[in-house]
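Please fill in the sequence for the structure shown.

STRUCTURE ENCODING:
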């Protein structure tokens, strides 16, 4: 009997697929592709054409209509990660290919990271560290004032998107005595009573009352550029904005203008619209050059919110489990296009 072929695109493991083969055993054939020229090199058609299952390990590789057309025999696409905005879900659904993501490997890490960004800004951690590293004389009570530093108790922590990570962040914020509110138009009525957090009917309502805004919605057509100039204008003056979701949800020019005008007090960004960053962007230039007006008001991390050695291992084993479950039982773990597939007559 021929073995099913699994194509692993740009894996996160550096050496052997030990975790994956631990799940699959020897009953599969692996095709492992790594880009050799540039990070976002197109995936070779021959790799896509040979696969029964395509596992995409990086969001920088687009699974667009062309790539899907090349998948002559694929029965499953697995995103080794949460975000799937780089996959043409419509085209996969039309081709009858289920797409599964791996939503549950780093929920705690991303929520921790969002809170860490907020606490870093509101406790002045990196700024104090950097000041005393440069001038030991900064070890002085007269040098402690920093605009984003303020008492947390009673400050409103506004969550955009109360899904897995948003809820985990909200629970953490509550433990710090934040007053938690959320905006999520897709949660059923009454969710607010189940979770015990205040629900806002509109984004404007949330923005107008939040001292901290933490973004946790997926990036979609609807949410691309959601955090734009209008959102900044709707903010409570001096609010802290944190994005650990996807860079394209925030308009970096709007964040720049908001920080310069003071409408945004501080920002913590783990994700940017262009990654790796466009260092010529005026905000990133000011940040890199440590311009005085931005001191203590911007913290950037390199799309690292998901990362711990433990979460990376979970990501690989859970994605491998999706493939295993499909190949052995024909069932789908965490499908993201089941409704659209069923509308096209798909049965599993
Ligand atoms: P999820 O699907 O569990 O939750 C997303 C929530 O957002 C849902 O409740 C949904 O109803 C809500 N939502 C959708 N559209 C919305 C809108 N227009 N306004 C407000 N809410 C809206 O997703 P999960 O797992 O919590 O992931 C959240 C985000 O975190 C995603 O953007 C994902 O890409 C990102 N992420 C970032 C990582 C990082 O390393 N920085 C790692 C993992 C995920």
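FILLED IN BY: designer on duty
SEQUENCE:
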């Amino acid at each position: 009997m021929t073995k099913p072929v699994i194509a692993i695109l740009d894996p996160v493991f550096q050496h052997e697929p030990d975790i994956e083969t631990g799940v699959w055993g020897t009953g599969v054939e692996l095709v492992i592709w790594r880009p050799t020229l540039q990070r976002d090199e197109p995936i070779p058609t021959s790799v896509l054409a040979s696969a029964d299952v395509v596992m995409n390990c990086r969001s920088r590789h687009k699974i667009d209509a062309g790539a899907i057309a090349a998948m002559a025999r694929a029965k499953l696409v697995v995103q080794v990660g949460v975000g799937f905005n780089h996959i043409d879900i419509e085209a996969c659904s039309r081709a009858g290919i289920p797409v599964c993501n791996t939503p549950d490997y780093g929920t705690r890490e991303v929520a921790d990271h969002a809170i860490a960004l907020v606490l870093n800004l509101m406790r002045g951690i990196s700024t104090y560290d950097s000041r005393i590293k440069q001038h030991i004389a900064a070890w002085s009570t007269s040098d402690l004032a920093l605009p984003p530093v303020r008492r947390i108790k009673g400050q409103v922590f506004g969550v955009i998107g109360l899904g897995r990570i948003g809820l985990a962040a909200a629970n953490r914020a509550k433990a710090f005595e934040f007053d938690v509110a959320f905006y999520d138009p897709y949660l059923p009525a009454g969710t607010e009573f189940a979770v015990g957090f205040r629900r806002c009917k509109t984004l404007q309502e949330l923005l107008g009352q939040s001292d901290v805004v933490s973004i946790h919605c997926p990036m979609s057509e609807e949410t691309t550029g959601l955090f734009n100039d209008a959102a900044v204008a709707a903010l409570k003056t001096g609010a802290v904005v944190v994005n650990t979701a996807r860079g394209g949800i925030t308009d970096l020019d709007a964040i720049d203008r908001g920080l310069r005008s003071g409408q945004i007090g501080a920002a913590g960004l783990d994700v940017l619209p262009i990654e790796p960053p466009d260092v010529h962007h005026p905000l990133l230039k000011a940040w890199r050059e440590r311009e005085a007006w931005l001191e203590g008001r911007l913290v950037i991390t390199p799309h690292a919110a998901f990362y711990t050695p433990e979460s990376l291992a979970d990501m690989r084993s859970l994605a491998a489990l999706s493939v295993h479950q499909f190949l052995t039982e024909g069932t789908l773990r965490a499908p993201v296009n089941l409704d659209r597939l069923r509308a096209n007559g798909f049965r599993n």
